Amino acid sequence: MFDFIFYHTPIFYLIQSVWRDEAFSYFMARPNPFQVVINTASDFNPPLYYLLLHFWINIFGKSDEILRLLSLIPHLLTVYVVYLFAIKLFSKRFAIFVAIFTLFNPMLLYYAFEMRMYSFYALFTLCSVYFFYLKNWKWYTTASVLGLYTHSFFPLIIASFLVYLWKTSEFKKKTIIYTLKPLLFYLPWLPVLVAQFLHSANSWMFPVDIQLITSVLGNLFTNYEGTPGNWWNYTAILSGFILLFLLLAFKNKRKEARLFLTPIFIPLFLILGYSLLRRPIYVNRYLIFITIFEIMGVSLGIWVIKNKILKYASIILWLIFIIYFNIQIVPYHKKADFKGTFMEINKLAKDGDLVFTKTPIAYLESAYYNRQTNNTFIYNPNNIAVPNYIGINVVFPNISKASFPPSPSRTFLVFDDASYEMIIQK
Is 381 helix (H, G, I), strand (E, B) or coil? Predict the structure, then answer.
C-alpha cells in the first residue's frame, strides 16, 4: 500500500528528485530580494514567485519536499476559491464536485508539487475571473497584478476579459478601465517583458503541428507533453469531449460560457497562430490558466444537462477519468535520479574534489545536490556558448571548464541521465 501511494500516485511528485527547472528556481531565490529582481530581469518570468520562495527558504530551509510544499498552498486555495465560485454559478452541492474536479485535475495537481510558479499562476487566474465575475474591482485588480508579476503570459487573460466584454452590454468605458487597470501597475515591468521576449529567440520549444492543435485541449487538461508518444490520439479524443461539454454550456448558458470560453480560445488562437507563422512559443505549463477555464467550462456543461441520470453519470465518469489518469501518468513524469547519484558522490568526494557535468543539461541538478555547490562545473573543451534558455547564465556565469584538473584532485563526471564516473588525471 505504501509503495503504491508513494510511487504510483501524484505523491511521487513531492518526493522524487528535483529536476532542472526546480533547481533553477532554488538558485534564483537564494540571493537577497533586490538581486532576485535583477536576476529575474534576465530570465523569462517576473519575480514574484522567486521572492516568495526566497522567504520560504529563509524560514523553512532547503529540503526538496519543503520547497515543493510552497506550491501546494496555492493549489489548495484554488480548490477553495473554485468552491466559492461554483456556489455563485451553480449550487452548494454541485460546488463540491467542482472542487473535487479541481483538486484532482492532473495538470493542476502535478504543479501543486513542483518548485515553480505555475500553481500560483493558476490561483491568480481563478481569483481574477472570480472577482471579475463579481465586479469586485479592488480584488480583481489585486489578483491580476499578482498574476502579472507571476507569469509573462498573464496579460493574455486580461485581453480575453476585454474581448468578453466586447460581446456584452457591459462594454462601457468604466468597465473597460477597471478591466485594464491592473496593466497600469505592470508598466514598470513592461520594458523588461519586451526585452525578455526578444532575448528568448534562441529557444528549445518544439514547433506546433496539426497533432498538437487537435490535442491541445486534452493536453492542457492532463499535462500531457508527448510522453508516452502513443497517447496523442487519446488526448485528441479527450479534446473532443472537452469541446463537446464547452459547446453544451454555450448552448444553454451563453453569457457564463463566454466568460470561460473566451480565455480558452483567444489565447490559444494567438499563441498557436504565432507559433505557426513566426516561431514556437507554445508550452503546456505557460498556458496552465486555460486549464482553469476548461474546468469551469466543462463543469458548466455538466450542470446544464437536464437529465439527472446523464448528469450524474457525467460527474462520475469525469472523476473516474481524472483519478485513473493521475495514476497512469505518474511513471512518465519521473525525473532522472540526481538525488540518488549525489548521495553516492557526496559520500565519496573529499574537500577539493570537483564535479563536472558532461553537458549543460545536467548542471543545475548537480549544483543543487552537490554539497560543494561551488565545485560544480560544465565540461566544455570546445568552449561552446551555453544556450540562454537553460538558465545557467543567469545565476552561474563562467562555470565552463575546458579540461579536468590535474592530479591529485579527482573529478566526478555526471551525465544527463544522472549516471557518473570518476576521473583521475595521471
Answer: coil
- Are 268 and 282 a contacting pair, CB within 8 Å? no
Beta bridge partners of 400: 378
Q: Any alpha helices (H) in 227-369, and if so which ranges?
A: 232-252, 254-277, 288-303, 308-329, 338-348, 363-369
Dist. CA 285–CA 111, nearest whole Å: 9
Question: If DSSP codes are grouped into helix, strand and coil, which group holds residue 422?
Answer: strand
d(CA 308, CA 212): 35
The dihedrals phi and psi of 99, each to the nearest 5 degrees, come to -65, -45
Q: 179-208 b/e with 16+ CB inside 10 Å = b? A: bebbbeebeebeebbeebeebbeeeeeeeb
> CA torsion, points 324, 334, 120, 281, in degrees to nearest 10?
-100
Q: Write the single-letter amino acid at 130.
A: Y
On the question of pLDDT at 388 being above 80, the answer is no
As a whole number of Å, the CA-based R_g of the chain is 23
321 and 298 Cβ atoms separated by less than 8 Å: no
pLDDT band for position 310 (50/70/90)? very high
Q: Give the model confidence (pLDDT) of 73-85 as tens digits.
A: 999 999 999 999 9
Burial 349-363 (b: 16+ CB within 10 A, else e): beeebbbbbbebbbb
For the chain, what is the largest distance between any 2 Cα atoms, rounded to a whole number of angstroms? 80
Grid coordinates given for 244: 463537446
Q: Report the alpha-carbon distance of residue 302 to residue 117 in Å, rounded.
A: 30
| 341 Cα distance to chain centroid | 26
What is the per-residue burial (b if ≥16 Cβ within 10 Å, else e) of 371-395? Answer: ebeebbbbbbeeeeebebbbbbbbb
Cα–Cα separations (whole angstroms), residue 175 to 85, 127, 158, 344 = 21, 18, 12, 60
What pLDDT is recorded for position 202? 59
Model pTM score: 0.95
DSSP string for 33-99: HHHHHHHHTTSSS-SHHHHHHHHHHHHH-S-HHHHHHHHHHHHHHHHHHHHHHHHHHS-HHHHHHHH
- pLDDT one-digit tens code per residue, 146-178: 999 999 999 999 999 999 999 888 899 999 999
In angstroms, the Cα distances linking 239 to 83, 123, 236, 287 are 24, 23, 5, 15
Cβ(306)–Cβ(252) under 8 Å? no
CA–CA separation, 365 vs 338, rounded Å?
7
